[in-house]
Amino acid sequence: MSTRKLIIIAALLVAFGGWYAFRPERLFIDARVNEQFPTAAAAAQPAVLASGGFHGVAHETKGVATIYQLADGKKTLRLSDFQTSNGPDVQLYLVAAPDAHDNETVTRAGFLHVGALKGNVGDQNYELPSDVDLSKYRSVTIWCRRFGVNFATAPLRG
């Protein structure tokens, strides 16, 4: 195989690797979610345990994070009127800190992984472990796991 073909193949591999790592098309394509609030068979209203508005850290983010206790005892984290940047491997964490204005606070304080973000725009629900300690986990963070970046945080009040 000629040197020129090896260079072309290597360049294509590097280009593919760069695309896969950064997924630039996600900067322009929103993943929209519009989940209804989970309702139990009983007509009892869910109790709000904690709630807070998002503030941007690395990316402008809007919306409210609310933790509900449903009539059946389950806890649900709901993102309402939510909007942030899209990106690769974006996750949702409960953070053991009252707020997080940087990356280090999240990693130093510790966190509970809730799950992959379902979409970067819209209302969405996440079931929480029934034994989650809300006196310890006092904020919600949108986290890019691939780059170790805190997109935004919502300090919870309850």
Short note summarizing the structure:
17% of the residues lie in helices and 35% in strands. The chain is of the alpha+beta class. The chain has a domain of 109 residues: Sandwich (Immunoglobulin-like), CATH 2.60.40.
Number of helices: 2
What fraction of the residues are assigned to beta strands by DSSP?
35-45%
Low-confidence stretches: none
SSE sequence, one letter per element: HEEEEEHEEEE
- CATH domain fold name of the domain at 47-155: Immunoglobulin-like
Strand adjacency order, main sheet: 2-9-8-5-6
Q: For the residues shown, what is the average pLDDT?
A: 89
Largest sheet: 5 strands, antiparallel
CATH H-level superfamily title of the domain at 47-155: Superoxide dismutase, copper/zinc binding domain
Rg over alpha carbons? 19 Å
Distance between the termini: 66 Å
Under CATH at level 1, the class of the domain at 47-155 stands as Mainly Beta
The CATH architecture of the domain at 47-155 can be named as Sandwich
Please characterize this protein's 3D structure.
The structure is a single chain. The chain is built from two helices and nine strands. With 158 residues, the protein is α+β, with helices and mostly antiparallel strands. The protein has a domain at 47-155: Superoxide dismutase, copper/zinc binding domain (Immunoglobulin-like), CATH 2.60.40. Strand 3 and strand 4 form a beta hairpin. It is elongated, with a radius of gyration of 19 Å. 30% of the residues are buried.
